[in-house]
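Input structure tokens:
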């Protein structure tokens, strides 16, 4: 039987920004967390065990959101804990830096399958559960990127385009579900010190570019996680259908 009053699903919830959000949300009595992850089972289990409490359960669930067949199981794990209050779509993929002519159709397909189609599938599952609820704080937060605006020329135009799609989806979905009391917001991080830069082939990117930002440093996971946690809270109750930049002024 469900044991918690509010459950939050975080895709990409065991690394980077997603893990930062999980740490901030965990430990509140009556609140459950489901952390979706792909790969690194040891890290996922370790984080779930660290955060799990009898009155605030945390579950790590293997889920590649790029595979639509895996998404329902992620939300079934949430159903087992209680009613869904929030979804944070933090799962995303980035490939090695490349000029546009080096990005082939296979790479486009991989990027869009996770960053757009998978995110949309998670939103669909969340809305189906939230639509008939009566909680005042039913929220979806989509993690986008400042690259959606800047385009990431010479690096990863495909990733930037996928995040622009996330921002458009956020706006459209927010207007569609506002009548149910569901809020949908997009957060656009700038240069943040996470391991994603290594995935792109430039592990020192945040350290190199951080001092060039208006605030003089790269952002941290906590900078972004704090913003997301605030958006999930009643303090942000009149914010929907928009994007929030966490860029240090970039």
């Amino acid at each position: 039987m469900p044991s918690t009053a509010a459950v939050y699903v975080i895709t990409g919830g065991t690394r980077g920004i997603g893990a930062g959000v999980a740490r901030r949300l965990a430990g509140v009595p009556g609140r459950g967390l489901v952390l979706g992850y792909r790969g690194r089972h040891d890290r996922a289990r370790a984080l779930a065990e660290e955060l799990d409490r009898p009155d605030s359960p945390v579950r790590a669930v293997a889920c590649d959101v790029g595979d639509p067949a895996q998404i329902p199981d992620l939300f079934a794990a949430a159903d087992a804990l209680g009613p869904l209050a929030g979804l944070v779509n933090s799962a995303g993929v980035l490939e090695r830096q490349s000029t546009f002519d080096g990005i082939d159709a296979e790479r486009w397909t991989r990027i869009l399958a996770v960053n757009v189609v998978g995110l949309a599938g998670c939103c669909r599952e969340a809305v189906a559960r939230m639509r008939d609820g009566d909680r005042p704080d039913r929220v979806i937060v989509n993690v986008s990127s400042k690259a959606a605006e800047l385009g990431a020329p010479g690096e990863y135009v495909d990733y930037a385009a996928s995040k622009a799609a996330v921002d458009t989806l956020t706006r459209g979905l927010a207007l569609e579900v506002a009548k149910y009391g569901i809020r949908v917001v997009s957060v656009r991080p700038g240069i943040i010190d996470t391991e994603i830069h290594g995935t792109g082939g430039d592990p020192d990117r945040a350290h190199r570019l951080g001092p060039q930002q208006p605030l003089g440093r790269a952002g941290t996971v906590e900078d972004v996680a704090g913003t997301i946690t605030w958006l999930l809270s009643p303090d942000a109750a009149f914010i929907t259908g928009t994007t929030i930049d966490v860029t240090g002024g970039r």
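The chain has a mean pLDDT of 93. Residues 10 and 34 are 6 Å apart (CA to CA).
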